[in-house]
Design a protein that fits this description.
Arc Repressor Mutant, subunit A, three-stranded antiparallel beta sheet
Length: 110
């Protein structure tokens, strides 16, 4: 991930509804959520939600899959991982213990 992609991802997450969408999709995991259901769960208008999903997709944080007439959305964990890696690539300066608390905090405790 480069600087411009990182800025797009951070800008996408810097809006309240889009952050809520991303977190909802992360919780949904591999099953994802249909677009209409995302709007319903978050109390948003469908055409507004469509615009938010488009921004998140362009930023590499969300991916979609068409299932007949329904579009199901998923958190793109590869895109999110790439963003986290970009943000932390210079973190340790050769001393991994500096970053250990951050890494421990983001490790899934499932």
């Amino acid at each position: 991930m480069d600087k411009m992609q990182s800025l797009a991802a951070l800008a996408a997450l810097g809006q309240e509804t889009r952050l809520d969408v991303f977190r909802l999709l992360v919780r949904a995991g591999e099953t994802g959520i249909p677009a209409g259901e995302i709007a319903g769960r978050l109390g948003a208008v469908q055409n507004t939600m469509s615009a938010h999903l488009k921004i998140l997709t362009a930023a590499g944080l969300v991916r979609s899959q068409r299932e007949s007439r329904v579009i199901r959305y998923f958190a793109d964990m590869t895109g999110f991982r790439d963003l986290m890696a970009y943000l932390m690539e210079d973190c340790c300066q050769g001393e991994p213990d500096i970053c250990r608390p951050v890494l421990d905090a983001i490790i899934c405790k499932c």
